[in-house]
Request: fold
Amino acid sequence: MTTSTHESPRKASISKPRDREIHIERVFNAPRDRVWRCFTEPELVAKWWGRGNKLVVEKLEVRRGGHWRFVEHSPDGVHGFEGRYREVTPQTRLVYTFEWDGMPGHPSVETAVFEDLGDGRTKIVNDTLFFTNEERDGMMSAGMESGLNESYEALDRLLATIS
Amino acid sequence: MTTSTHESPRKASISKPRDREIHIERVFNAPRDRVWRCFTEPELVAKWWGRGNKLVVEKLEVRRGGHWRFVEHSPDGVHGFEGRYREVTPQTRLVYTFEWDGMPGHPSVETAVFEDLGDGRTKIVNDTLFFTNEERDGMMSAGMESGLNESYEALDRLLATIS
Reply:
């Protein structure tokens, strides 16, 4: 049940493969260790995760059971996000809960897999599971796709500057 | 698909009505406002929630978006539990996430409804939703039922002492 795909390599491919799930794929022009660092080092996360807006990384405990909490300061207001790591496999895989302060008590679970494409590029495959289809569809209609693409474009720019 | 019920009014009735769900009912010999206080005041929660074991209430922010965190010191070890309130309707209804430190990143959502039975007694109806059936069944096989009954018996004893 794919609902949207994009030809541009600069847009994330987003689909709804099964009930309660969102599947996202995106390729980055950077080796896997560099992409991994951008997801796990606070000073790097702060530079892309908030779509180019100011982002305060209040907590980023990248280990099983660790918590994370980011606060984005965007033109339309202050938005907090938080969760907890279920699994951390260095360079390869992160599983964590994700919750937006605007919908407290409605966590989803994200599995992010970092694939080394062998040519200096990295593909991130992200599967998100919600408690209900309503929560998933609400997230998608709340501008998730454009927000995600803005963040990933900020990540492209950041990856080009680090080594 | 009811899997177990109990005749004794002192045991909680526990069933699996639908996929990914647990349904629990239990009657307490106390008026609703007193039962509500035992779920929302830290010094009262500390006296029953941990099955009679020492319980440290690290956080109990009973409001939409607020966090809670309890640490139980039992003979078999120290167990932390935490979550966040989705909904707080005084005297009537609490909806919150529930996560055990031993399974981080595997939250469930609990809806607790407090029914005034009109005769000085209160029924608590608790519906829990998990992300998967495996998480639900794992929780049930991990001694949830006996732990719950021990906590509710401690709550019976507490309710008899407060006014």
